[in-house]
Design brief:
- By secondary structure, the protein is mainly beta.
- Helix content is 13%, strand content 36%.
- It contains four helices and 14 strands.
- It comes from Chryseobacterium rhizosphaerae.
- This is FAA hydrolase family protein.
């Protein structure tokens, strides 16, 4: 199982980090060891500035290569929410040197994944999702604001990577990302249903 992640897919998030709006999906990867086991996230010793990034996640149900956008919807049946934890200080250092982001993005426990739900139960073109930190809403996203749609992402990524059943795609985060500290509680909602409940240690 591989985890494909899309960066800068919400224009307001790109702006808040001082990044240009991309012409094509910005892709990075996380290893399967990044998936968090349980509900406790431990801040790694190599970072003093770990940020939460809430995202809609697709689970690939049908493999493929060179998938056309028109048929991309046939390759996933379920969606969920996930948190892409990012060591922002380390990422900034790596970016300043022109180096890859994997150390800042793919460390153990950096990919939080909740339960998955049948996509037909949702309007995927206008799907609200949100994140609360210590009961205060910090991210309030909607898929209608994505630069690249789910089908765009699947078609683009499959030009480079063969998609396999069970692969996960993190589709990008809206504005409002921020730092986590010890004892923070993160709660993620898909529409009005709580999907994730994460404790920071």
């Amino acid at each position: 199982m591989k985890i494909i992640c899309i960066g800068r897919n919400y224009s307001e998030h790109a702006k808040e980090l001082g990044n240009e709006i991309p012409e094509n999906p910005v892709i990075f990867m996380k290893p399967d060891t990044a998936v968090l086991k349980g509900n406790d996230f431990y801040i790694p010793e190599f970072s003093n500035d770990v940020h939460y990034e809430l995202e809609v996640v697709l689970k690939i149900s049908k493999g493929g290569k060179y998938i056309q956008k028109e048929s991309a919807h046939k390759h996933y049946e379920e969606i969920g929410l996930g948190i892409d934890f990012t060591a922002r200080d380390l990422q900034s250092e790596l970016k300043s040197k022109g180096l890859p982001w994997e150390l800042a993005k793919g460390f153990d426990g950096s990919a939080v994944v909740g339960n998955f739900f049948k996509k037909e139960n949702y309007n995927l073109d206008s799907l609200p999702f949100s994140l609360l930190k210590n009961k205060e809403k910090v991210q309030d996203g909607n898929t209608r604001d994505m630069i690249f749609s789910f089908d765009d992402i699947i078609a683009f990524a499959s030009q480079y990577f063969t998609l396999r059943v069970g692969d996960l795609i993190f589709t990008g985060t809206p504005k409002g990302v921020g730092k986590v500290d010890e004892n923070d509680i993160l709660e993620a909602y898909l529409e009005d249903e709580k999907i994730l409940d994460i404790r920071i240690l």
